[in-house]
Amino acid sequence: GNQQDFGDFEDFFRAFGFDTGRQEQGGYNPNFNQEEDVHLRAALNYFNNGYYNEARNVLDNIENRTSKWYYYSANVNYKLGNNIKALEEAKIALRNIRQDANKALIVYIQ
Q: How many angstroms separate the CA atoms of 101 and 29, rounded?
């Protein structure tokens, strides 16, 4: 598929630490904290270094599929040319983030 069909799709993922450019060096993700799951970090490192199949394998072996997992999986699928699956997963991630934000807002208001 034509990756340009997504328009700002790559910008969408830069906020989550993905280096979507074709740089020689791997990207840096400042959004990880010390408690971040080691497998997600490994998947991101593979992704940022251009090892998309390896990132896919790591993600496939993670059972806890959080919003962040869906974002990472969507971006890996996008780079592998699985654009329909990438878009589906991006929508799931966005929906989950909105639900989490609404829950946080309700807790904050109370």
A: 22
**Among candidate residues 2, 4, 23, 6, the one with its CA nearest the CA of residue 74:** 6
How does pLDDT run across 33-75, given as a tens digit for each residue? 433 488 899 999 999 999 999 999 999 999 888 888 999 999 9
Q: How many CA atoms lie within 13 A of 59 on its CB side?
A: 25
- Among 21, 97, 18, 9, residue whose Cα is nearest residue 55: 18
65 Cβ partners below 8 Å, 6+ apart?
73
70, 89 contact by CB (below 8 A): yes
Angle at 70 between CA 59 and CA 86, to 5 degrees: 95
pLDDT value at 12 more than 70: no
Q: How many residues does the chain have?
A: 110
DSSP 32: -
N-term to C-term CA, the chain: 47
